[in-house]
TrEMBL record:
Domain of life: Bacteria
Protein topology in the membrane: Multi-pass membrane protein
Chain segments annotated as transmembrane: 22-45, 57-76, 97-128, 134-154, 161-178, 198-222, 243-263, 295-316, 337-359, 365-382, 403-423
Predominant location category: membrane
Name under which the protein is recorded: Putative manganese transporter
Leader sequence residues: none
GO CC terms in record: membrane
GO molecular function, one term: metal ion transmembrane transporter activity
InterPro entries in the record: NRAMP_fam
Amino acid sequence: MEKLADNPVIHSKKHPVMSFKVALKALGPGLLMAAAAIGASHLVASTRAGAEFGWQLAWLILAVNLLKYPFFAAGARYTAATNESLLHGYLKQGRGYLLLFTGLNTLAAIASTAGVTMLTAAMLTLFIPLSIDILAFIVLISSLVLLIFGHYALLDKLTKVIMFFLTITTLIAVALALNAPSMVSPEFISPSPWQWGYIGFLVAMMGWMPAPIEVSSWNSLWLLEKQKSQSVTKEQAIFDFNFGYLITALLAIVFLALGSLVMHGSGEHFSSSGVKFANQLITLYSQVLGNETRYLIGAVALLCIFSTTVTVIDGYSRTLNMGWQLLTNKNESQKRLTGVMLTISALGLAIVLFFRGALLPLLEFVMILAFMTTVVFAWLNYKLMTSSALPESDRYGLKMKSLSIFGLLYLVGFAGLFIYWMATK
């Protein structure tokens, strides 16, 4: 594999246009991470937060993105510095660390695959009058065909197009909603999210905001995969990650704004049924863009969540395959990677069948699981980025260490609060 090398163009002050072109060409892993994030956390959690509580949770969404930043950034920074994946780093810390990561990652892989698959199937009901269970099977088969025969290159190109159209469409919808007359009654009093009964919702929302922290390991492996086709400098890798992460944070607020401007105070609440939820979500857009845009918006939203499903299957499969490879000293195998994809897809489908179309309960379960395991994944990344095994110039400095510690305290604190909340229900 070609090493992450310094590219003189990227440092050149004489060629700013060329530098921009080089940086743009290197975009890929960061956008794939954004595509994985802009799924249930944005389409469901952010929109629902705005619909239920207006703008009250906007600061919390931004705070969560900030406090999780050091743990996500570890994927790009560690790989750019060492030309190795995060999983190699875990193994260097000790075999037990990689075993811990792989075990929790297996649970997360199955649950997350189930969650995004059902959400994609729910969106597909707008176009195909079949049950969610059958559509979930179709979604998984389509995703596997794309990944097995298209590989990373196709996924990389497809994601950039989908992300562009979703971003533009959502921004237009919010801009129109800002100019639309308010339908909220003057007597309406917005409920406060800071009540004991909403702890479960807050934890679920934060669990996948902007995404599960194990996504950092996907970014690490995608960066190595990108490196097979072109040279990527440290600066390019960090720019790519920061660009993708910034998009996820901003769009989280945009989706919250859409829910707040169109649905908050209307008396309508999101249904737990996947079919009804999909209709409600698209109605949010069509109310401000016009009913004639309903199917166009539905298609864009479907492509968005479908890309999330594809990246989730690809990302989890790559990390599980790499974990197995490192733990057993096996050689790299495309056949084994395909087998992992098939296995987590089959187990994810089994969970979808178990929940029988109840989308919101499934997503809440997956998001809460993500939040509880996030504490461990965050700690693993912090330990790695402050380890003496990493060159001192690439370790986290005082600012990133401080932000990481605040992030860990927040994660542990809310996890403890949620456990207490569950015990007293």
